[in-house]
Design a protein that fits this description.
The protein is α/β, with parallel strands linked by helices. It contains four helices and four strands. The longest helix has 12 residues. It has a four-stranded parallel β-sheet, with helices on both faces. Helix 2 links the parallel strand 2 and strand 3. It is globular, with a radius of gyration of 13 Å.
């Protein structure tokens, strides 16, 4: 029996200064069977570069650029759901932080 896969969906818009902490908190999880989709909503700051750096270092992070209307977090979440393969889905905002045992606690 395999551990359930958790899909984490994070909309992002111009949060380069904050999203790094959010992604670090995901990366630090004690439960490791997860995938994280960061859906960028047309950022004009350094968000794309920050997210791409995480994607290079850890293939569980995936950057998706919103290419359809309307703009906004709900559309980004819906796009994330379309890509998600997890048994469970968790929505985060780009400034949320997870405790290191958050996913493990939720699975248990």
């Amino acid at each position: 029996m395999r551990d359930p896969l958790i899909s984490i969906i994070i909309p992002n818009f111009n949060r380069a200064a904050l999203i790094i902490e959010t992604l670090e908190s995901v990366k630090a999880q004690s439960y490791t069977n997860w995938e994280a989709f960061v859906i960028d909503d047309g950022s004009s700051d350094q968000s794309i570069e920050v997210i791409q750096d995480f994607s290079k270092d850890d293939k569980r992070f995936k950057l998706i650029k919103r290419e359809r209307e309307p703009k906004g977090a709900p559309t980004c979440r819906n796009i994330g759901i379309e890509y998600a393969k997890g048994d469970y889905i968790i929505f985060l905002d780009s400034d949320d932080l997870l405790a290191p045992s958050c996913l493990e606690s939720r699975v248990n």
